[in-house]
Write a structure and sequence with these properties.
The protein is of the alpha/beta class. The chain has helices at 37-48, 88-98, 117-122, 136-139, 160-164; strands spanning 3-6, 9-12, 16-17, 33-36, 54-58, 76-81, 105-110, 127-128. The longest helix is centred in the N-terminal third of the chain and has 12 residues, at 37-48. It comes from Ectopseudomonas khazarica.
Amino acid sequence: MQRIIKNDQVIDETWHLLAKDVTLDAIPNCDDVIVPLALWVEHGHALKARDGGLGVWLEAGEEIEEIADDLAHFQVIALNFPAFTDGRHSSTAYLLRTRYGYKGEVRAIGDILRDQLFALRRVGFDAFALRADKDPVDALKAFEDYSEVYQASADQPQPLFRRRA
C-alpha cells in the first residue's frame, strides 16, 4: 500500500487513483476514486451518483477552469506533475485556494521531490504522493526547512512586513 503525506503526517493511501484510460464500467461503486478529468467531463452525471468518495485529477496542461463550477462534488483534487521541473500546477493549487475558495484536499501527484514540498504547501497543497523511490517519512523534514517566510501566499496571506507592523 502506498503511503502519502497529508496534513504533515504520513498516512496509508485510501483513495484509488484511476488510470487515464479507465472506462466508467470499470469503476467500483463504493470505493473512493480519483478519476481523470476526461472521464469526469464525459460521465460526470454517472460519477456523482456513485456511493464512494469522488476526486478528480488533472494533467499539467489541463486547466482548473474546466471544472470550476463542479468543485463542490470533489473531496480530492489531484494535480499531476509529469516532471519535477514542470511547476504549472503550483498556480492551479493557488487558484483553487484563493480564487475558488476550495476547502477540500489538494494533492500533488507524479514526479514530486522532497525539495518541492515546502513551496507546494505554501501555494495550497495539503497532500503529497511522492515518487515510489522516495521515503515520505524522510520528506516530512522539508516542512522544517524554513522557520519564517517573507512573501504572501495561500498559506499566509500577509507578507512578513505586514505581520510585524
